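--- STAGE predict ---
source: upstream dedup step, 1 unique chain passed
mode: sequence only
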Amino acid sequence: MPDNADVRSIDALRDWHAALVTYGEGLAEALAGIELEIRRAYEWLDEQLALWRRAVRDCEDEVTRAKAELAQRKVPTWDGRDPDCTVQERNLRRARARLAHAEEQVVKCRQWIGRLPKFVDELYAGSARRLGNFLEAELPKGLAELARRLAALESYAGLRPDFAPAPSLSSIPNPPPPFPGREGGENKAASSSPPPRGEGPGEG
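--- STAGE serialize ---
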């Protein structure tokens, strides 16, 4: 038994072809956008690492100054009493806390710089690679085949009158107007018709 295609609308196939083209363009733009965001994430992590490293150096200088101020404040007074170092000790604790926080952020940035490529490979790279191959090879091949078959169908439809599209209402000519005086002529003919047999003048 032959395998015949039951094509009912060539316009629907044209619309499908156009929709597939739009679909492919949208996917390509989405992949490009994701790749851009991934690069931005790498750049952002590098920037953050540089910022926190600079913050570590600044905090180390602050700790050094706080230590020097505390050591200077601890010098006994002329009468041998120990001075109050509450402010200097508090400043040193705060400087050390800021230094510890900056060093912790450096560690986190380094960890994420190492983790992000693994996450990208595990969760995205494989699927993106397959989708990219589909967009670069399979989809264009399918679109070309669909376009070829559309052209064949259009050529075949042009040879068959039953595939010709129905005329639109705007292309159907209007009927001609009635002939002038036709109605009056019909009445005149009816009035001048001979009388029925047996009813002529002089009979009866």
